[in-house]
Amino acid sequence: MTHTENLSDHLPIAIRAYVPLANAARSRKPQKPPRPSDWVLVFDTETTTDPSQRLRFGTFQVRYAGKMAKHGLFYDWEALSTWEQRVLVRFARANGFELLTRADFIEDVFFKFGYALRAAIVGFNMPFDLSRLAIGHNSARRRPMRGGFTFQLSPNRWQPRVQVKHLSRPASMIRFTAPPRQRAPRGMRKNFRVPVRRGFFPDVKTIGAALTSRSDTLGSLAEFLKLPNRKLATEEHGGPLTLAYLKYAMQDVQVTWEAYAELSQRYDQHQLERTPIDRIKSEAGIGKAYLKEMGVQPWRLVQPDFPPEITNIIMQTYFGGRSEVRLRRIITQVLYCDYLSMYLTVCTLMELWRWVIARGITFRDTTEETQALLATVRIQDFQHRKTWRKLTTLVQLDPDADILPVRAQYAGGAQYTIGLNNLTSDKPLWFTLADCINSKFQTGKTPKILRALTFQPKAIQTALRPVFVSGNPEFRVDPRTGDFYKLLVELRSSVKRQLKCSKPREAAELSSEEQALKTLGNSTSYGIFMEINVEELSEMASALRYADDGSFATILIEQAEVKS
Known about the structure:
Blueprint: E1 2-3, E2 8-9, E3 13-14, E4 39-47, E5 55-64, E6 67-75, H1 82-95, E7 98-101, H2 102-116, E8 120-122, H3 126-133, E9 136-139, E10 149-152, E11 162-168, E12 171-176, H4 186-191, H5 204-212, H6 218-225, H7 243-269, H8 283-293, H9 299-302, H10 308-316, H11 342-349, H12 353-356, E13 361-365, H13 367-376, H14 385-388, E14 393-397, E15 400-408, E16 417-424, E17 429-432, H15 433-443, E18 449-457, E19 467-468, E20 476-477, H16 484-500, H17 504-525, E21 532-546, E22 552-563
Parallel strand pairs: 4-8, 6-7
Antiparallel strand pairs: 1-2, 3-15, 4-5, 5-6, 9-10, 10-11, 11-12, 13-18, 14-17, 14-18, 15-16, 19-20, 21-22
């Protein structure tokens, strides 16, 4: 129930809970990811402009160690007129390009190099191009691709299919399925486990967005990267096939290769050798790669026996970062303020990097001392670091007109959103100590604490390694003694200083680097630790909903939220 002086709204509120699947597999130690060979297959498709967007023809390059091995075109005869077929043949012969049917391209190029020879299969917005090659499709049914699509590219049953699952606007998971026929010899299968070849599908659009924090078309990405070749302009999409349009299509696949080569070089500068470029789906992926490079083990792996009822309390207190203006319909003078790297700054003040590299966390009851701190704390106390270090505490309150974050369906909305309200509840609720302190500053009243838990990190993990942020030798961080979050703030500030005195042609590059560092910092200090992936289950499953007192109840769910 929310409460104000003049109006009370009785609203049901939503509280986060910890609900792991009862039969969920335990976290396993991360395995070293496989690497592609020196082969690279780059391809692009051109389609009709009607709603079917049917394949007309495509272009491709096959390279070995960067050098061209073969290049050409493939086509769907049924989508081309007799006259267009002649234009295509004449263009291929005049330029020495191979000309293949769609089926021959799939068998002799796509599967030969992309699957058998473990080539990196490269494209721009590849989910679309892969779907244009398909002769059949179905829904992906098994984890982790459930909710995506399975595309059949070949009529040959021994060839694997390709699965695509959308993750975000610029990113998708792409992989080969396990082929129906076992390719490994029986003796090899008997002696050790033969891994399934999932393939390597680096998407230039995805990698570009992750490394530059920009949303680009192939043309704008080529301009930004200052590639030797640029995307040609055309207005012939869907029109009669011409030599000019075929030249445009061949230029597209060349620009895609050059963009991939340039982005790969930029990624190599980060020196993230333990994470292949095809695993990068966003700026957060780069942050995870840095943690892996430093040897940081995930918390759920190093402390799998952490009490689930305490995890449930932690989940309840998460409301996310937000800003609010509590003056409504009042004309007043305001001063616009901003924060420099707010998430990173708070993490540095609270010394949270120490938690990231710890072997786990401990907790103890601090109800009396936390109530005493809440009663005496002042705004000016936050000018001292020792106050920030005390904020790693969660408190259970009996809310009584305290200003606290609440999830509810405001104004009859269908979605639960977060608002900062005068909250009164007949049931105790958990909040962070920071939320309680804010309530005191807003209302002048000290909230009544029923219970408080203060958390502390355990000893530092072993086998941690230093890294150079962005490959810059001046920004070396040893995770055992340094603060990765603080270093990211310093590096971003350095780039911003360079940006102020840069020339116009350098400004775009520095601005992109500064934005990329900002997003990297936010995702690494905040986003990746609160990542929730919704997984669609194939059937009803049982799960445990943990309560604050350590008890639990078995429930049935149709959809699960699985934390990465």
